[in-house]
Amino acid sequence: MSPSSKLPGPFECGAFVNLDEELAQLSADASIREEAGRRSKMLAKYPEFRIVLITMKDGSRWDDHKTSSRIFVQVLRGRIRFHTPHGAFDLPAGGLLALDPGILHSVDSLEESAFLLTLSGAANR
């Protein structure tokens, strides 16, 4: 079977994820806990990085927090405002933000939104 004819999911040298299907499942699955208007699902977990799919309801907020990992935020749908001590960044669908480890930040959802959060594992090695 050629790689293009395999079903999505893990395969010998990696994994394939259909983001549209994962977003639909994340929105519809009542067993996935919602916290402050936010739902999340781990899509990939490796020693060097993790990728998390996150949805936020319109008007919800993810309060100040920080991580020991370098992070990348890629907005798939909607629009979020990402706050740091160095300023606020409006990220529309297609926007990508990279943030160094240890930076305090918060996120406001300016409309129903979905984004990928990639956390590097370099700080954890």
Structural description of this entry:
There is one protein chain. With 125 residues, this protein is mostly beta strands. The chain has a domain at 52-125: Jelly Rolls. It is 8% helix and 50% strand. A 5-stranded antiparallel beta sheet has the order 3-4-11-6-9, covered by helices on one side. A hairpin with a 2-residue loop joins strand 7 (79-84) and strand 8 (87-92). The chain is globular, with a radius of gyration of 15 Å. The N and C termini lie far apart (37 Å).
Tell me the layout of helices and strands.
Layout: E1 9-11, E2 14-16, H1 19-28, E3 38-45, E4 49-56, E5 61-65, E6 71-77, E7 79-84, E8 87-92, E9 96-99, E10 105-109, E11 113-120
Antiparallel strand pairs: 1-2, 3-4, 4-11, 5-10, 6-9, 6-11, 7-8, 7-10
Residue stretches low in confidence (pLDDT < 50, at least 5 long) are: none
Give the SSE order as H and E letters.
EEHEEEEEEEEE
Report strand order across the widest sheet.
3-4-11-6-9
**Helix content percent band:** under 10%
Dominant shape: globular
Oligomer: single chain
The residue-averaged pLDDT reads: 89
Number of alpha- plus pi-helical segments: 1
Could you list some keywords that capture this structure?
125 residues; mainly beta; Jelly Rolls; 5-stranded antiparallel beta sheet; 4-stranded antiparallel beta sheet; 8% helix; globular
